[in-house]
Every structure is written in C-alpha cells, then in structure tokens.
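Model the whole thing, not chain by chain.
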Amino acid sequence: MAATFLKSQFVFNWRRNPPAILGTLILVVCTGLVVFGPFLVRQNPYDLTQLNLMDSFLPPAWLDGGNPAYLLGTDGQGRDLVAAIVHGARISALIGLSAMALACTIGTTLGLIAGFYGGRVDALIMRVADVQLSFPSMLIALFLMSAFGTGIDKVLIALTAVGWVVYARTVRGSTLGEVQKEYVQAARVAGLSNARIIVKHVLPNVLTPLIVIATVQVGTFILIEASLSFLGVGVPITQPSLGLLIKNGFDVLFSGLWWTSVFPGLMIMAMVFGINLLGDFLRDELNPRLK
Amino acid sequence: MSAILQVTGLEQKFRLSKGLLDRVTFKGGIPRLRNPLVHAVNGVSFSVARGEVLALVGESGCGKSTVAKTIARIHPPTGGQVQVDGTDITRLTPRALLPVRAKMQMIFQDPFASLNPRQKVRDIVAEPLLQQLGSGRAAEVRERTLDLLARVGLNPEQAERYPHQFSGGQRQRIGIARALSVNPGLIIADEPVSALDVSIQAQILNLMLDLRDEFGLAYLFISHDLSVVHHIADRIGVMYLGFLVETAPRDQLFARPRHPYTRALLSAAPSIDPKRSRPEIELKGEVPSALNLPSGCGFRTRCPLAWGRCAAERPTLRDLGGGQSVACHLIDEPERDRP
Amino acid sequence: MTAPLLSVRDLRTWFHTFAGTVKAVNGVSFDLAPGEVMGLVGESGGGKSVVGFSILGLIDPPGRIEGGQILFNGEDLASASEDRLRRIRGREIGMVFQDPMTSLNPVQTVGAQMDEVLRLHTDLDAAARKARCIEMLESVGISQAADRLRAYPHQFSGGMRQRVVIAIAMLARPRLLIADEPTTALDVTIQAQILRLMRRRIAEDGASMILVTHDLAVVAEMVDRVTVLYCGKVVESGPVRQVIDTPAHPYTRGLIDSIPNPAHRLPRLKQIPGTVPDVRALPAGCAFRARCPRAQAICATDAPALRPHRGEQSAACHFPVAPGEPA
C-alpha cells in the first residue's frame, strides 16, 4: 500500500513541484513544533512560578542585552517567546483543525441532504447559506463572539458557523451530479434505503474536492481566530493563541519592543503560507477538470 | 397469468423547473405562471411473458429509457400501472418494494457510471442480494458472488479489484452479475451494449442470450440500434415521442412494418449488407419538443403521409392480428398509403 | 494514377504519460487520391482519431508526432510550423468533430463564426462573405438562412448544429475534409440526413474526405476505400466492398462478423474473444495474435507488414483469410 502510494502519479507530480515541496516542509516543521515543541522548551509560559519579572522585555539573543537562554527574547511578564509561540501555535492549530472538522461535518451533512432530497429542504438550506455568504465572515464571527463572550468553545462555534457554508455548497453541487449517475440508480434497484444510498454511495464520491477546501480552511480559520483574539474577543488570556500574543506585543510595539509581536506574527505567516502552498498543489492535483 | 411484466397506460411527466421565478412569463405585460411539463411517456401499454425478450426501440427523447427506469421504480410513475409477476408495484413504498426487487433487476447503459468507483467488485455484485438476505448471511452471499463472477467470465482474484481496473466490456459483465445475483425473472436492460465496441458488444449480447436460456430470464431490452434489437428480441416495440407506435414479433416487424415511422427507422439504419432492399423514406425535420406535444398523432409533423385526421385525432394502438399492433390512421384508409 | 492529395508515410504519434508511453499511432501509412472518400475504422484504442488529429496538427502534449511524414500536396505537415498549419486548417483542410458544441463558440452567433472563417481565409468583401454564408447554410439544408445567421449555437438542435459545423468546415472550399465520428451522437434518422448531406457536399466541391468512425455500416454506405486500424497500426486496407465482402485480416473478419445482420440472423453472434491489449505494453509480434483464431508461432515473434493481398486490397497478416475460406 505504502509502496504503491510512493510510486503513484500524485507523489510523482509532488516531486516536480517546488512550491508543494516547500509547503510540505514548512508544514512538517510547524507540525513538529506544535506537537513536540512544548516538551522541548524549558519553560511552561503559563506557570507563573516559572516566570521571572526581572527577565521581562529582554530582546532576542543576538541583540544587545539579549540573554542566550531566551532565543527570541521575552514579553512583559518575562515569558520566553519561544515557549509562548510554541504553546500559542498549538492552541491556534487545535482551534483551526477542530473548527474545520466541525464545519466540514455539519456542512457535508447539510449539503448531502440538500442535494439528495432537493425540493423545499434544499431551498431552505441553500437560502440560509446564501444569507450567510452575503455577510463577510469576519463580521459574523465578531458578532457571534460579542454575543457569546470569549472562550475557545465560543471561537469554535463562531468559526463553524462561518465555515460550514462552503462545504454545504460544494457537497450539494457534487451530490446533484452523483445522484444522476447510474450507480446510484443501481443502488435503488438493489433496494437500498435513501439513508444507506447517501452514506454508502454518495458520500464517498463527493469527498475529494473537500480535501482542498478543508486544507485551505484550516489556514483561514487560524487567521480569523488570530484576528478575533487580536481584537480581544477570541481566546481568554489564560490560553493565549498566536493572535493574543500579537495583541499583547502590539501594545508595546511602538516602544521599540517589536519582537513580542513580530515573531508570533511570523509563525502565523509560516503556518498559513505552508498550508496555502500545499492547498494549491492539492487543488491542481485533485481537480478532475484540469486533468 | 403468464406475464412477468404487465404495463398499462404508463405515464411519466417531469416538471422542468422547480423555482417559482423560473416559471413566471410575461404575456401582454401581465405576469403569468406557466407550468412546463415534459411529457416523457404518454400512456404506454405492453406486457412481457416469462422468458421473453421484448425490445423497445426509438430515437433519443422517445421515452424508452424513461419507461425502463419507471418500471424499475427509479422514478415513481405519474400515471398508469406496472405489474410485476401479478403484483401492482405502482404505489408500493420502498420497503414494500424489496420483495419485488428480487424478481426484477436492471442493467445500465454506461459501464463507467453504473458502478460505484469506490466499491470493490465483490461488494458491487453482492449489493442486491445482501439487501434481500440481510447481512447475517454474508458468507453465503460471498460464495454466490464468486460463482456469479465466474459465470460472466471474471475470475475470483478480480473480485477484490475496483471498477477502474476493468475495461468497458468487463464492467458491463460486472453489472450483469449484479443484476443476476438475486436470481430475478425479469431483467430490464437499458442500452446495455451501446457504449461498447462492436467486438465486445457481440460478447455481451451472446452472454445475455446464454443467461436467458440458462436462467429462464425475460428481458425488457432498450436500444436505439435496430440490428442489435433484431438479434436479441423476440418481440419489438417502436416508440416515438413517448408513444408506443407499433409492436410486432421481430421478423414480422422487419418484414412488414406498418407504421410510417417504423418504416423510416428501418430505412435510415445504415447496413453493411448492400443487398438489403431499402425503400428510402427520408424524414424531414426533427423530433418535436416533449414540452409541447403536437395535437393528434405525435409523428404527424414529420410524417410524409399525414393528412387532416392526423392532426385532429390521436391514433390508438390497434391489434392487426399475428401479434402486430399499430397506432396509425392509415389502417382505416390504406389507399392513402402510397407516397 | 494521379498523384495523391494526401500521403501519410509511417506516421508515429506517441503520448508520453506517467504510466508509460502510449504508442497511439505506430507506423501508419496510406494515400488519399483527390476526390476520394476514405474510411478510417477501428475500435477504441485503435488510434483512428489520433491519425485525424495528427494530420490537422492538433496533437497537444503529452502527445507528439515522433516520426513519419504527412504529405499534403507534397508539403510535409508533420514538420510544418504552427503558423503554417493554422493557415491550412480551415482553408485547405476542414474538420468536423463528434460533438458540434466543441467546435462552435457558444457566445458568438453562427453568422459571426462563419464570417470569421471567410475573413481569415479569403479576400471576399463583407457583402460577398455574407452571401456566401447564406448560400452555404442553405446548401446544408438550413432554411431561412439569413435569419439563422443571427442565432447562437444553443438555439439549434443537435442535428442542425452538426449541419452548421459542416457548413463552416466547407466554407473556404477545402480540398480535404476530416470528419471524426460526425454522426455518432445523432439519431439514425438524423444520421441518415447528415451523411447524405456530407456525401453531396463533398461530391459538389470535388473534395476528398477522411471519415473516422467505429461504425462499419456507416463506412459501407459512405466511402470508396477503407483503412482498418488495430492498436495503432494499419491491419487492412482496400476498396470498401471488397474489404467488407472478403476481409483478409482476421481482425476485420471478426469485426464484420460481430455486427448483427438482420438479413442472416444466427443464434449466436461470432465474437472476437478477449479484449484489446494494453496499448502501453503491446506484445512483440502481431498485436492481434492473442485474440486471433489463426495465430501461429511466427505471429508471436514477427510483426507482419502490410502486404498486397488481392487486387488493391492489402493486409498485415502472416495468414490472411482467402475469399470463401472459413475464419
């Protein structure tokens, strides 16, 4: 199985696509940092007993006054920025991935129902989706967050509410195409119930385009969450994501203490850039129309 | 009652567009709702005896595939009655249909679209039988699946593969094995060979005829190809614009076609045989839209012999004896029947 | 004998795909005389469409003409520049494809598309061009041609669209028309109309035609000469009646026998066993041998060359079928 994958056209094309390789490399490094990073840094940035206010606002190690123990410097509470970024990236990535999973599940289910049954159910679901799409997603997320208050669970709800539409629309479109195909009619003639036809026959055949959407959406969600946190309506201070780190640093940015804000920002940029590079490659690979 | 399939006055109308806005037209400045209906099948009656092959022929849009799919209850009919082995299935719920599915199965046209690309061949073939027996008898189903694949000319190793690893002809064999799995008495075959190369087409037609003798199958065989139909059918029905215009035993239809459309169809089909005598009947124009059926006879707009009565009165299918029935006013006025 | 209008010599068109090289056309040669109608037949994978596309210079990567010559009026199209080919297409060689929608621009009126062809390929002024368009549409059986010039392709039915495509293909009075399955998507009664029309147009203009099709019955009624392809090679060619009545190659024989013939119905059709081999890994020797009832040891080692068989008929087979001999 693994051997056939390595010999497949997918891998063949990947090896001839430098942006895709770069994207994959960035993501592998980011994933490594997010998964293993917290075990590698000496400090737990949220354990106040490990912080020393004497070390606050130390610049990166290579600048004057820098401390080699704090490679990227420290913030106002004397937190090691490397440790803070590693932990923050973990929260950002977790939020992005879980929100994507939620949005994908809900959107796919609604899209399947809309496309398979058509009629009024379809009209209802798609009109809700249309209304949703007519507002900028940031606005909806902001509105929901100010209504619910901060918290990771609230961020997840807001992101899911913003993100399900794209799955619903895509899945509905593919479903409309699939139910016309004769294998679905054959399943009817075999005597399968509608629910089984949807799960066994339609669902596996509408999933491929979702891979691209899901990949790119993780990036988008990381950005939206960062923006919400930056605006102070995202995650609570006790669980700072990258966005909150940027916000904390932003308050002192113009005092020349740029590192507290810039390094978390670079981390977000790297993650989203890697995701988008890979997403572009997947889009070209998995889009049957380009073949 | 020897008919395995009895179809009476079958009608199928589709609504063209569902949205309210699509249906608004402006006539003289006043908005009106119109309700465009596609009259796909307009009162078709026929029966198929046990072990018989009835072929429905006609050009695209004549409703032959819709008849097949309506009988297979892929779409419920909007009118008329379908009896399978004496049971009226017209109003049965999907659950109540399940026993009927064991008597009637279907073979599809497109060897690529008719198999789920994400299912193994073994699971594709087993699906109808699994529905009948329930997953409790999976081992039995598995064994029968391998027997069926062997019967249609595929080996057990191929059961573990996916459809894309097969050629068009092999895929059609898989579709036939799937239809056979529940041991049905009737198989509806919707253009089963039209997507295949001629040499493969011959293999599949031979297989279908062998299976008919072996299992005592009846076929409702849908096709646009008259030479294929001549080879496989015992009886032939000709459809035009959702109407059945003529039915007759095979040899009689080819030797003495009565309906002008049947004659035109026979004369238009190209042949490799130069000796075939062909009274050239050239049809002008194209098939009218099923959205707006012509008054009277559906064929009159292209019929070289049409006269006033054809526009005023819709001809009904009338028995001429010898198993031949025709829906044409020329039966009453044979003196008009010379171009 | 007059000099051929088109002479294809040892044409090889290959497709380099991830899964291997597909030798879609692998050493095809034939001549086409002025005014002659030739059928290019075979099943899917035979390479018949690729021959047509190669002549038109429409082979896109990963496909490439690897070798051979396509001499059109003595000029080698296989090595001609894209610019030159563009000038030849439409003016000297017309084309008709299976799906008329692929050759018509959906957002331009039929008149505009016809006018463009004439502007590119002739020196006629606007009024003369319009007159020619109307005349052409009428000649393919489209009534009220002046009004129909203002219509868009989707306003025509399938059969009418194919008529428009034929009209466009014949506009500049090309000397060669390449028609790739022109009636496969159409119903038999419409097919009969279109075939009759094409035969008439070709005869009136004195043009030649290559009819690419899988349908031997269409070939039997339309062409003068037929060339049968199997796995990228010519297996048989000759006058159409002679080939159909007394095929020399076992493949041609098998193809003809597998068509159900209402005049002599047999309880079972004769079938060619097996399937077309994988074109990426063709066996050595004759590509048909695994399905051939006459195959012997030599067929596995030596690929048979196309040799004269009887009169103008030639076949690429070590053991060709003699007339009257059972296969």
